[in-house]
Amino acid sequence: xxxxxxxxxxxxxxxxxxxxxxxxxxxxxxxxxxxxxxxxxxxxxxxxxxxxxxxxxxxxxxxxxxxxxxxxxxxxxxxxxxxxxxxxxxxxxxxxxxxxxxxxxxxxxxxxxxxxxxxxxxxxxxxxxxxxxxxxxxxxxxxxxxxxxxxxxxxxxxxxxxxxxxxxxxxxxxxxxxxxxxxxxxxxxxxxxxxxxxxxxxxxxxxxxxxxxxxxxxxxxxxxxxxxxxxxxxxxxxxxxxxxxxxxxxxxxxxxxxxxxxxxxxxxxxxxxxxxxxxxxxxxxxxxxxxxxxxxxxxxxxxxxxxxxxxxxxxxxxxxxxxxxxxxxxxxxxxxxxxxxxxxxx
Length: 346
What we know:
The protein is of the alpha/beta class. It has 12 helices and 8 strands. It has an 8-stranded parallel beta barrel, surrounded by 5 helices. Helix 6 (about 120-135) packs parallel to helix 8 and helix 11 runs parallel beside helix 12.
């Protein structure tokens, strides 16, 4: 078994490498490098983000329940802070997300007297929300994850059983893209999902997007969330997914990248610091992934991490798996890890 080692010593002992290069500048000829943020993260990690990233996504603060918690009551304060930071630092801004089965307020799906909303009411509310949000950030947000995670994971059905599907029917997806395009004709519009390299899910995503294109839907790209880990998926599975989606002629964004140091079935809680083996595996996996991304830079036009550094990640608070996961290129002290150097060295 590999021994535990002084993790902070490993990741900070890089003085012989000279000045730390800017992450996004290392990819200036390839694609923007983004981070998912909140106002609190910008307060605590702003200097790191300003130096190493040139694209931002609101982790939660542009989701429906955050922007319109009550009907016709819009709360833009936190989202506006992220927009201001992006402007001040000349960063691109991705919008996330307009239509999702999760983090959407219950009132959106309710009619009078507690009855479910009918199709016309629900679509009217969707349109108002999209018109208001996309309209407010027109010219500031250059692309939107319009519909998020609409595909069913494992069952035979193509679409997830959600209140959107139940009340508005399959057409809700196309309507969302049409409304977003009308609100900002210059914005790039994406369908975004996870498990995008798993063959069954990959083919469902391909089918959904192809069907949308065949119907003339204004969709410009596919978002690959890329919530992977240091063991899977294989580089070949990632390559196959990229090739499959790219065959549709759309842009691809890597939208929520993280590589925790645990596999999907690893239930360990006692690991308080990564082992040498875990550190080496993460460095190798990140290096190979970014080498692959670079080879597809003609279709991959943004790579965004779902966070900025190891001191905060949603993965550490995943229900039933609360633990440190160390998924990023920078450690808790915002210093570059071994995986950082492998990524920027090419």
